[in-house]
Amino acid sequence: MAETKKPFIDRTWDFLCSLKLAIILVLLLALTSIIGTIILQNGSAADYIREYGQANYELFQKLQFIDMYHSTWFICILALFSVNLICCSIKNFPRVWKFVKEPTLIASSGIFKGSANRAEFRCKGSKQQVAEQISILLNKEFAKTTLTEKDEKLYLFAQKGIYSRFGAYITHLSILIIMAGAVIGNVWGYKAFVNIVEGDSVNQVRSRNGTGLIDLGFTVRCDDFDVSYYPNSNRPKDYNSDLVILEDGKEIVHKRIEVNDPLTYKGIKFYQSSYGSAGNAFFKVRVTENSTGETVELKAHQGKNVQLPGGYAFAVTNFTTSDRNFGPAMQLHVNTPDNKSGAPFVVWQNHPQLDVKRGGIFSFVLLGYDQPHYTGLQVAKDPGVNIVWAGCFLIVFGSLTAFFFSHKRIWVCLEDDGKKTKVLIAGNAHRNQPGFSLAFDDLQQQIEATATNESPKKEG
Amino acid sequence: MDSGQLFNLTTIAYFAAMVLFFAYIATKNDTVALVATLSSLAGFLIQTAALGLRWYESYQILGVDGRAPLTNLYESVVFFAWSILLIYLLMDWKYKQRTIGAFVLPIALFSMLWAQMSLHASIDPLVPALQSNWLTYHVITCFLGYAGFAVAFGVSIMYLLKIGKEEKHQGDGPMGGILGMFPPTKVLDDMNYKAIMIGFPLLTLGIVTGAAWAYYAWGTYWSWDPKETWSLIVWFLYAAFLHARFTRGWVGRRAAWLSVFGFAATLFCYLGVNLVLSGLHSYGSG
């Protein structure tokens, strides 16, 4: 075989360029990717041992199935895939570039004989006249036409959509761009999370791959967190956090973030991702001293004593957002100055007049309550993301160009044939031949009509 | 008239169209084929109206929280059927191969039946993660892509049915019988390719819009979650299909099988991941 005689380097090069390798790699990537969708990724050792047993867990570790999309072998397949894309492009690009640099201005007789779309006719008039008429028509109906003279024959050439030859290369390039963006993001970026209790600030976030704390270089404060629910359900409708960025104690940026609307500062994005309650609820309570009618408004945390006039104190011991049908209610008791606890009693928020009737030294009104929350934020820095988006734009643009546009070319040859002129027409499209055939037939009829009429009628 | 009733009419129209397409293959009567095509077109138009009406209804029920009808399994399955009809009718208009309907309409009909008989049709408000315009772009592009693959699948089945008989067929005369009514295998092979050519860029766009949305919602455009990974697997399979056509050995039968596997992977990506595996898409937008 001739192939075995080729030097090793050439054979390696051919292999790396080959379409066969591309198809094998793509199918291999598809097949191996399934593993990570079946076996839990990045779980704890206990998860795997419970599900698959100790022996299998050790096997998974050896095969790097625990984090397979970042395993050495998977990265190797991706790397080989990139090499394949690059080599194949290097090999084939010059051929396509030739279409641009050296268009076939003069069609060989082979093109006129072998083309799927061709026509031949004779007409009156010199070949110069006919060539000019056809040029005008092609310029108007198809594309800019070039005239070349060779061996007493006149040749016309026009082409359209040459860029579509590059669609595949743009698509291939865009895959490499996306991979490059992903690598940049992985090396110079991070993914982290942080929980901030309302009112607190942080200047560090915790990395999600377990490498510890990351300094932000500035401070983030959460001023407020809110969650709202759909009516008559406990489905959250919205949750959002008021975030403030501080540098050197100065407030730089304020933003209310919500799910799908993050805050960006210095390339670091803060995403609303979760929330939870932080500590006990606190209550706004109005206390009236029944003997004097004097009132004070106080803030009380659950379980903490709050001082009242005359050495008394009270504490909220229990709370519910709905006490049967009466709405929010708190249970509390009053301590005497010698620190003896009184009997507990209940105050309902929706019935503020009720506690006066209890007839104690003080009467209480529950004005409102608040459950302090922490806001859960995903924090991400990804310097490669814009490269990825550029790649994504190109991959869509490239694949559309590659599939839906084609490089169409028309050649005409005119030669003297006695007193008449013989006209040969050929056309070629590198994709969607049936569609082009229809367009070619139409164009060819127009050319014939133009050339055979002494004074060509304008079509349409 | 509510959208549910219109969807019922749609199902009836698709059922009628399917039966008529079968009848066409059996009777070879062109009028039957025309009525079948008109019936699928009527079903498609009714379904379009129904989708619009359901969109409007979501505003009546949820007020300002109304949204495009693309947010739960029921709505996605219905939209899948609509997408299949859209791609099918475009292909029919272009190729005028009426028998294709007999192999594509059943997929749409089955989707409609499944959605209406066993899926939850209520219009519920959205969880915050789904409240995004990206949802609409993502779902529309993905499902039009899936629909391209569904049509390619139907055509491939026809190809595989016909090619076996054609290879055994003796003589120069045209094949008789039901398979003789099928388009020539060359045309089927070309239609398979064309349908995937429509589906592939749309799936690409679907994956890209999904990545963009994930980036705005979670801060990472790709996290190898099972749904994402399966969409990439589907993408790889059809990329292999498209490239395989450039080498001589992979047109015809192998291409048809690849298209069948591709559609199986598409269905697993769409339904299997939600029903079997778990991940970010577990709330079932598809």
Structure described in brief:
The complex is a heterodimer of chains A (460) and B (286). Chain A is α+β, with helices and mostly antiparallel strands.
Question: Can you describe this structure?
Answer:
The complex is a heterodimer of chains A (460) and B (286). The longest helix of chain A has 30 residues, at 72-101. Chain A has helices spanning 2-5, 8-17, 19-38, 45-52, 54-63, 72-101, 109-114, 127-141, 167-188, 385-404, 433-452, and strands spanning 117-123, 145-150, 153-160, 190-197, 201-207, 213-229, 236-247, 250-258, 263-265, 268-277, 282-289, 295-301, 305-307, 313-320, 329-335, 345-348, 362-370, 373-381, 408-417, 420-429. The relative contact order of chain A is 0.14. By secondary structure, chain A is an alpha+beta fold. Chain A contains eleven helices and 20 strands. In chain A, helix 4 packs across helix 5 and helix 9 runs antiparallel to helix 10 (385-404). Chain A folds into four domains: 2-99, no CATH class; 103-161 and 406-452, Kinase associated domain 1, KA1 (TATA-Binding Protein); 190-277 and 374-381, no CATH class; 282-371, no CATH class. Helices cover 76% and strands 0% of the residues of chain B. Chain B has nine helices and no strands. Chain B has helices at residues 3-27, 30-62, 73-95, 101-118, 133-168, 177-181, 185-218, 226-244, 253-275. In chain B, helix 3 crosses helix 5, helix 5 runs antiparallel to helix 9 (253-275) and helix 8 runs antiparallel to helix 9 (253-275). The longest helix of chain B is centred in the middle third of the chain and has 36 residues, at 133-168. Chain B starts with a helix and ends in an 11-residue tail after the last helix. In chain B, 52% of the residues are buried. The interface between A and B is large, with 47 and 42 residues.
